[in-house]
């Protein structure tokens, strides 16, 4: 596999993961429990992208996801995520 193909696959996998998390946030009754089971490594970019996907269809669930993310010890929000929520 070439370097360009590997980068494309990696990028596709990343956005598939973002979409998977967004589906959990939008449709799961207990998203916190499901997200905890995934053992995610949260980054501000990942949280931002999930918020961006979810904010138009279900803003209350976006806030719930952000609250869950803030409770994780490895995550510290940036102004970008707060702006996305607003």
Major sheet description? none
Number of helical stretches of at least 4 residues? 5
> Could you list the spans in which at least 5 consecutive residues all have pLDDT below 50?
none
Q: Give the amount of beta strand, in percent.
A: under 5%
Q: Helix share of residues? A: over 70%
- Tell me how many strands there are: 0
Mean pLDDT, all residues: 88
State the oligomer.
single chain
Q: What class, by secondary structure content?
A: mainly alpha
The ordered H/E elements are HHHHH
Span between termini:
42 Å
Radius of gyration: 13 Å
Q: Which geometry do the CA atoms define? A: globular
Q: What can you see in these coordinates?
A:
The protein has about 90 residues and is mainly alpha-helical. The chain has a domain at about 40-85. It has helices at about 5-25, 30-40, 45-55, 60-70, 80-85.
Outline the fold blueprint.
Elements lengths: L2 H25 L3 H8 L5 H11 L4 H12 L8 H7 L1
Helix pairs in contact: 1-2, 1-3, 3-4, 3-5
Summarize the structure.
This protein is an all-alpha fold. It has helices spanning 3-27, 31-38, 44-54, 59-70, 79-85. α1 crosses α3, α3 (44-54) packs antiparallel against α4 and α3 packs parallel to α5.
Notable traits:
single chain, 86 residues, mainly alpha, 5 helices, 73% helix
